[in-house]
């Protein structure tokens, strides 16, 4: 059962109008699924307040390379133009004629950027990096640290779903160049990599090795956790994902 102090704090926020009852129920549901059964502190805390970025760790991420020109042209230099490029260009990794595009969404300079691997076909069909139950679980994760879904920037390594989990060397290089340019333009305060593919591509490490510590990608504090779709069928890993979320948010 969630600790009494946590419930009392939630009730006060509902009465004050900071949360609707539906939002409070969603937040409590995520805490319960994540295995949080005690209050971690007595006083409320504003997770959205600016905090000093953590110092670089000894196990620094390999130096990232600037984005290279693709298909004979340069990548756009504004986030708006970049979004248009992702929505229209055929010079993108895994492009296929008629393929659905899973486009990024969210504000620039977001408190947190979520980066998935290759979108699942059902997600790409919805036009998003995360869709369906996986998107709902991601929203619960965000609310658990005080972020409304619209406050996060969500993207995928590529706009298109893939038939397998292994990228060719050329596709890997193109994905890496494209997403590094996108991170630079989106300028999030923190970055959370969801799954093995982003961890291997951007950190050179599998998720199992990269979890539990902070990294930096293009100067952005970065952590790694399980993708939401994996968590849907693995309740035991939700507590680990909660710890990863606390790590990147500054706990």
Q: Can you put this structure into words, describing what you see?
A:
This protein folds into two domains: 1-45, no CATH class; 78-251, 3-Layer(aba) Sandwich (Uracil-DNA Glycosylase, subunit E), CATH 3.40.470.10. Strands 2-1-3-5-4 form a five-stranded mixed beta sheet, sandwiched between helices. The protein has ten helices and five strands. It has 251 residues and is of the alpha/beta class. Helix 2 packs across helix 5 (132-144). It is 40% helix and 9% strand.
Q: What would the keywords be for this entry?
A:
single chain; 251 residues; alpha/beta; Uracil-DNA Glycosylase, subunit E; five-stranded mixed beta sheet; 40% helix
Write the layout of secondary structure elements.
Layout: H1 4-16, H2 21-33, H3 79-88, E1 112-116, H4 121-125, H5 132-144, E2 152-156, H6 169-186, E3 191-194, H7 196-203, H8 207-210, E4 215-217, E5 220-225, H9 228-232, H10 238-248
Parallel strand pairs: 1-2, 1-3, 3-5
Antiparallel strand pairs: 4-5
Helix pairs in contact: 2-5
Second CATH tier, the architecture of the largest domain: 3-Layer(aba) Sandwich
Number of strands: 5
CATH homologous superfamily label of the largest domain = Uracil-DNA glycosylase-like domain
Oligomer: single chain
Strand line-up of the largest beta sheet: 2-1-3-5-4
SSE run: HHHEHHEHEHHEEHH
Global mean pLDDT = 81
CA distance, first residue to last residue: 23 Å
Q: Level of helix content?
A: 25-40%
């Amino acid at each position: 059962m969630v600790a009494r102090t946590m419930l009392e704090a939630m009730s006060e926020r509902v009465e004050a109008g900071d949360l609707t009852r539906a939002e409070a129920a969603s937040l409590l549901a995520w805490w319960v699924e994540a295995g949080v059964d005690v209050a971690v502190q007595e006083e409320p805390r504003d997770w959205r307040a600016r905090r000093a970025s953590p110092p670089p760790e000894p196990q620094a991420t390999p130096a990232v390379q600037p984005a290279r020109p693709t298909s004979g042209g340069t990548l756009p230099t504004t986030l708006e133009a970049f979004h248009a490029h992702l929505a229209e260009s055929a010079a993108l990794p895994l492009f296929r004629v008629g393929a659905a595009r899973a486009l990024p969404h969210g504000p620039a300079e977001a408190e947190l950027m979520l980066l998935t691997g290759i979108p699942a076909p059902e997600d790409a069909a919805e036009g998003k990096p995360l869709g369906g139950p996986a998107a709902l679980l991601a929203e619960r994760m965000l609310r658990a640290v005080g972020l409304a879904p619209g406050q996060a920037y969500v993207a995928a390594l590529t706009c298109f779903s893939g038939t397998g989990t292994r990228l060719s060397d050329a596709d890997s290089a193109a994905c890496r160049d494209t997403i590094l340019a996108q991170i630079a333009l989106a300028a999030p305060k923190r970055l959370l990599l969801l799954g093995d593919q982003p961890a291997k591509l951007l950190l050179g490490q599998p998720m199992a090795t990269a979890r539990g510590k902070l990294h930096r990608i293009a100067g952005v504090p970065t952590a790694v956790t399980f993708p939401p779709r994996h968590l849907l069928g693995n309740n035991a890993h939700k507590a680990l994902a909660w710890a990863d979320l606390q790590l990147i948010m500054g706990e």
